[in-house]
Amino acid sequence: MAICTSCNVCKSHKISFDSSVNRSTKPLHLLHSDVWGPSPVTAEQGYRYYLIIIDDHSRYCWLFPMFLKSDVTNIFLNFITFIEKQTDHKIKKIRTDGGGEYMSLSFQNQLRLKGIQHQVTCPYTPEQNGVAERKHRHILDTARTMLHFSSTPHRYWTEAFTTAVHLINRLPSNTTWQKTPLQLMFNIKPDYKHLRPFGCACFPFLPAHSHTKLQPNSIQCVFIGYSEKHKGYKCLDITNNTIIISRHVKFTETIFPFQQKPRPADTPTVTGNDSNAIDNLLQQLHTRFTMKHLGKANQFLGIHIKSLPDKYFLSQSTYALSLLKQTDLCNCNALKNPSTTKIPQLSGNDELLPDASTYRSITGALQYLTITRPDISHAVNILSQHMHNPEQIHRYLLKRLLRYIKGTISFGLKSSLTLSTFSDADWAGDPVTRKSTSGFCTFLGDNIVSWTVKKQNTVSRSSTESEYRALAAATADTIWLKRLLADFQITHNKPISVFCDNTSAIALANNPVFHA
Questions:
Q1: pLDDT tens for residues 424-468?
Q2: Across all residues in the chain, what is the average pLDDT?
Q3: Buried b / exposed e across 459-498, counting CB within 10 Å, b at 16+?
Q4: Percent of the chain with pLDDT over 70
Q5: How far apart are CA 113 and CA 107, in angstroms?
Q6: I want to staple 490 with a disulfide (CB 3.0 to 4.6 A). Which of 69, 374, 439, 485 is the partner?
Q7: DSSP strands (E only) in 330-411
Q8: Does the structure show a pLDDT above 70 at 267?
């Protein structure tokens, strides 16, 4: 048969590999080893490589992070001394690639002194070191998944890799005859009770010397693995980047601190009575952060703000619509009253809200809606009194209130930005102490913004005295509100009207002699 040199030269390919059927019958008779790196991210401790050693019989794996490839010789020699003392076996062979870390003179001399045979793969033939190459892939896949799932920064890759090896050594597989590498190597059955999700929140107990008796005795940390030298967990304190090793640890396995990424800053609202100070603050913020000036506020915490020439209109129509969507009442028939004075007789055919949980959720959400909807305050207050055990009639009343909101979804607060206050008193209304009760309320335009009902501190000897005390408290509160509005550049050029129904108290207030 003629030999075509051109074909042999130009059509050369790798020869297929036969499946390996040879397997060591005892631990340490053959070890596979390889070096991985450099890592694209330098570890927190400065590591850039790692060395793995795999036992051919048990497939048990050891992983050693390294700064440099030249560290292989010292690590490997220390490992030989350690593992031979921990077991009743001697290392007979090792199989590696032809990397310079394995072919160095010092490494070769030490193997010869210990009588260990060194099997080296052919150049550019990693398939001959397949056990180590496949172990790399298994470790990387496992660690990469843990880092991604927990959102742990890549600089903690050494902790993820060592944790991955800890888990792999405790997993049975077909390669190990459905036994674990730990069991085959050290004849120890693994205990899985100590395993925890990598990257989850943990709370290690702190020693007494690290805190005072009034300070917390634990802090939230991140679980980043198992200590090889201690029977405990490695807990990362992300505030100072230190690792706490402890066995007294509680875990919160549904929380991953690194997933709690800093939220983008919400739209801040800046206000004040000094325009120069505001401009200076905005200029400083622009130098530190990427910001955009959005002009006057038109929405704040879900409240729509509409600016008119002489007033503001506040509404929560979008928020109210979301509540209707949650209860599937967007297309319901509207009602004109938020509640009813006569409780109707309910029949079994009446469609109500599904359960008590929905009742509590919607009623609680309605309390926020009362900020711009005082017309529903009384109805919401009644419904809130039955949160613990809502009955059928209460679920009916809640649905009725939502139907009222459907017809008044555009309602809100409209204010002329002018203050007015009303004052009154109940003289000697307490039959026991004979103390009077002061009551006053202040409106901004047509909307009430402040109110107080409070028993007076001393006994008033006449209705005039009790009314005057209430009028004085109302005036003080009104002056404070006036100054507060001035900070928002809402000024009152005219005197604020304070109303009182007692002519004697008004006369006292108007007489400057009594104001000394």
A1: 999 988 888 899 999 999 988 877 888 888 899 999 999 999 999
A2: 88
A3: ebeebbbbbbbbbbbbbebbeebeeebeeeeeeeeeeeeb
A4: 95
A5: 10
A6: 485
A7: none
A8: no
Element (H, E) at 35: strand 30-36
Q: Which two tokens stand for residue 283?
A: 């200029």
Q: What 3-state DSSP class applies to 9?
A: helix
Class of domain 30-186: alpha beta
**Is the backbone peptide bond immediately before 344 cis, with ω within 30 degrees of 0?**
no
The C-alpha atoms of residue 418 and residue 475 are separated, in whole angstroms, by: 15
Sequence-separated (6 or more) residues with CB below 8 Å from residue 201: 220, 221, 222, 223, 251, 252, 255, 256, 257
Return d(Cα 96, Cα 51) in angstroms, integer: 11
Q: Per-domain residue ranges for the chain?
A: 30-186, 201-259, 313-413, 416-515
Name the helix (H) or strand (E) containing 403. Answer: helix 392-407
Q: 96: number of CA atoms within 13 Å, CB side?
A: 25
Output b/e per residue, 240-275; b: 16+ Cβ within 10 A. Answer: eeebbebeebeeeeeebbbeeeeeeeeeeeeeeeee
pTM of this prediction? 0.53
In angstroms, the CA 375 to CA 495 distance is: 29
Closest CA to 194 of 149, 233, 143: 233
